[in-house]
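Action item from last meeting closed. Structure (309 res):
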């Protein structure tokens, strides 16, 4: 009876699994701050995608770890960049997999900021052209969805224009529309080696106390051509997620980020929480708040627990 009248249901098709890709072959490097997560070489990412598909997970979000960095983040938009290599390989082996790609510079720059730095400050407008170039190379390599996380003003419009001019009108944009300057990104920055070398990102990420601002940011991204909008992080901002759900009809994503994942894993390792019950409860909460898509490092385990579909 409880299942019959259940109001919120989880399905693996809702999940997007984030993957960190790096150079080399046969590399599956554990991430200490994110137990159970790995930095994959491209061949291992392809093999892992096969297992994900078997669990009913049909979408991945790629983050790149380049062999070398420079102030301009040139590895982000190189035709043979690590994300571009992974997108090509995944597209060749898994034609029906939804390949999403992160569009940002923080993993590729020596300074660790999400945009180009001029005179000690992030130059928003100069960064837009680079984000557009990055999105185009990823789209040409096989991305179905590009996901700009840099939080530069006007980034969705610049990327939409660049994609259309390159003949990639079919590629969708998932905007990191309401991305907060959160303390919960720490393990990700460890995994991706993307911590800023000076200052912080509060100048271009949202202020945590603000909720009305999230509505404005989402509306702006939609007006610029976003196909999917996002709230990030998920759990501390369920109220914002719920608010956005009632404000827009566009597909809505929530990113269950690295710090949220690491907290659960740490408590489970201490024997303080039941992992299965905890993970399914928190993912249900995210869906109940209004998310259509849930980006989560828990996705593989959750899909396993939900069983064959």
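Sequence:
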């Amino acid at each position: 009876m409880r299942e019959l009248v259940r109001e919120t249901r989880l399905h693996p098709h809702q999940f997007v699994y984030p993957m960190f890709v790096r150079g080399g072959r046969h590399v599956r490097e554990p991430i200490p701050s994110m137990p159970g997560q790995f930095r994959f070489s491209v061949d291992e990412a392809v093999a892992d995608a096969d297992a994900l598909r078997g669990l009913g997970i049909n979408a991945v979000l790629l983050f790149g770890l380049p062999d070398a960095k420079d102030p301009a983040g040139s590895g982000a938009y190189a035709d043979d960049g690590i994300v571009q290599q992974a997108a090509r390989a995944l597209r060749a082996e898994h034609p029906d997999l939804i390949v999403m790609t992160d569009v940002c510079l923080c993993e590729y720059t020596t300074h660790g900021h999400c945009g180009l730095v001029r005179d000690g400050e992030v130059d928003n407008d100069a960064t837009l052209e680079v984000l557009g170039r990055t999105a185009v190379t990823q789209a040409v390599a096989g991305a179905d969805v590009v996901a700009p996380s840099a939080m530069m003003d006007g980034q969705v419009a610049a990327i939409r224009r660049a994609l259309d001019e390159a003949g990639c009108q079919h590629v969708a944009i998932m905007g990191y529309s309401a991305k907060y300057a959160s303390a919960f990104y720490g393990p990700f920055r460890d995994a991706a080696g993307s911590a800023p070398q000076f200052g912080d990102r509060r100048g271009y990420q949202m202020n945590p106390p603000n909720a009305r601002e999230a509505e404005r940011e989402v509306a702006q991204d939609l007006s610029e051509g976003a196909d999917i909008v996002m709230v990030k992080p998920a759990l501390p901002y369920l109220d914002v997620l719920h608010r956005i759900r009632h404000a827009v009809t566009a597909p809505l994503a929530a990113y269950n980020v690295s710090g949220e994942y690491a907290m659960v894993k740490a408590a489970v390792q201490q024997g303080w929480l039941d992992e299965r019950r905890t993970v399914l409860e928190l993912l249900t909460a995210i869906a109940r708040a209004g998310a259509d898509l849930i980006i989560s490092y828990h996705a593989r385990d959750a899909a396993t627990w939900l069983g064959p579909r």
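Note appended to the action item: The chain has a mean pLDDT of 93.
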